[in-house]
Amino acid sequence: VPAWMQAGVKTARLAMKMGVITLGAMYSITELRYLGGISIIMITTFVMGTAIAVLWLGQLLKVPRPLTGVLSAGIAVCGVSAAVAAAPVVKARGIDMAYSIGMLLLVGLVGLFTFPPIARIVGFNELQFGAWAGTGILNSAQVAAAALIFDPHTIETLKVAEIFNITRILFLPFIVIVLAVWFAKGEEQEAEAAGAPKISMGKILVDKFPIFVLGFIIMFAFSSTGVFTPKDNVLHGKNFYNVKPDEKKEVRTRDLKKIQAFIETGDVKDPKVKESLEKLVADKQITSVDQADLVLKAQDFTKDKDLKAVFKGADTKVHSKPKTIGVMREYMMWFFAFGLIGLGMQITWQTIRQAGGKAAFIGVVVGAAKAILSFFAVWLFIKGTI
Predict the structure, then answer these.
(1) Collapsing DSSP states into helix, strand and coil, what is residue 319?
(2) Which of 171, 163, 215, 168 has its CA nearest to residue 22?
(3) Is there a contact between 285 and 311 (Cβ–Cβ < 8 Å)?
(4) pLDDT above 80 for 65
(5) Cα 56–57–62 angle (5° rounding)?
(6) Could you give the CA distance from residue 329 to residue 321 in angstroms, rounded to a whole number?
(7) Which of 23, 107, 192, 288 could join 367 via S-S bond, C-beta 3.0 to 4.6 A?
(8) Do 92 and 69 touch, CB atoms closer than 8 A?
C-alpha cells in the first residue's frame, strides 16, 4: 500500500463499523407484524442453528477461530454486513474477512440462480418463495435479486423475502454477543492450557464487546419509534402518510372513473381487493397501509398497463421516504464502499491461498444444508398466499 494511502486504509474498519450502525436505521419493529409465529420460529431456528453448525465444524476441522467466527456470523445472519460486525469480536484479520466475504458471495450467487427455477418446478407461490429466499440465501442483496427473478412484475415476493431477511438482520446483535462469549471462552481455555495466569472471561467480554453494535440497536430503536420520520406519519417506522385527507394526495377524477369501470367488469376476484378499490373511489385517495397493499395487488387482476400505472400512482401519492432515512442510506452505502475498498487493498492472492480449503468446505456444506432444510421447512409449514 503506497504511503499516501495508508492512513485511509487504516480507517477502513472504522468505516465498516459506521456502515453497520447506520444499517440499523433502515429497519423497524413494525415489519415484524407481517410475520406469523411459525415464521419467526423458523428464522430463529435457522439463524442459531447455522451459527452453531459453523462453530462446530470449524472446531472439528481445526479452522482458526477468527475465520470460523466471521464465517459463522455471515452464513447465519445476512452475509457481508454480519461478517463485518463480527470481525472485531473474534480478532479477525483482513484476510479472514476477505475470505469469508468471497465465500458468502459465491455460495449466495449459486442460490440466486438455482432458487427461482426450483421454486417454479415445485409450484411455490409468492409467499412460499419469499420465505425460502429470505431464509436460505446468504447475502441480503442476493435475497432481493432472487425475489425479483422469481417475480419481476410485482413487489409481493420481494416484500415477503425482505421481511424474512430483515428479521434475520435483527439477530445480528445477538449473534455478535454469542460469538463474543464463544471467543472469550476459547481464549480462557488457551491461557489455562499454556499455564498462563487464568484470564477472567468477564474481563475479556468487556474488553472485546463491540460497542458499535449498540449503535445498531439504538438506530433500530430510533427507527421503530419514529424518530427519523415526520410527525404526521401515521405508523411509527413506516414511511406512510394517511392521518388526514389531503387534496395533493387525491387521485385524478378520470383515473377514479377507470378504477370504477374496472370494478364493474367483475374481474377483481379477491373481495378484499375489490373493497379496497371501492373505498379508494369513495375517498379519492388511499387511507391506510393495508389498503395500499391491496390496491397494488389489484394489478394482478388486469393486463392493462395504464390501469396498473393508476394503481401504482395512487400508492405513490401516499408513500414518501423521510429525508433523514434517505441521507442515512447514502452514508451507509459510502461507509461500506470505503471500508471494503480499504479491506481489499490489504489482501493478496497469496494470503487467500494460505487460508486453505477447510473454510470453503464449511461455507459450501452449511450453506447448502441451510438452503435444503429451509426449502422443506417452507414446503411443510408455510401455507396460504399473500
Answers:
(1) strand
(2) 215
(3) no
(4) yes
(5) 105
(6) 11
(7) 107
(8) yes
Instruction: State the amino acid at position 42 in one-letter form.
Output: M
What is d(CA 294, CA 369) in angstroms, rounded to the nearest whole number? 36
> CA 171, CA 43: separation in Å to the nearest integer?
9
Only one residue has cell 415489519, namely: 31
DSSP string, 9-46: HHTHHHHHHHHHHHHGGG--GGGGGG--HHHHHHHHHH
Buried b (16+ CB within 10 A) or exposed e, 231-264: eebbbebbbbbbeeeeeebebeeebbebbeebbe
Query: What are the grid coordinates assigned to 113, written together?
Result: 440462480
Query: How big is the chain, counted in residues?
Result: 386
Q: For residue 319, which phi and psi values (nearest 5 degrees)?
A: -100, 145
3-class SS letters over 76-125: HCCCHHHHHHHCCCCCCCHHHHHHHHHHHHHHHHHHHHHHHHHHHHHCCC
Whole-model pTM above 0.70? no
Q: What is the pLDDT of residues 98-146, one digit of tens each?
A: 888 888 888 888 898 899 999 999 999 888 999 999 999 988 778 888 8
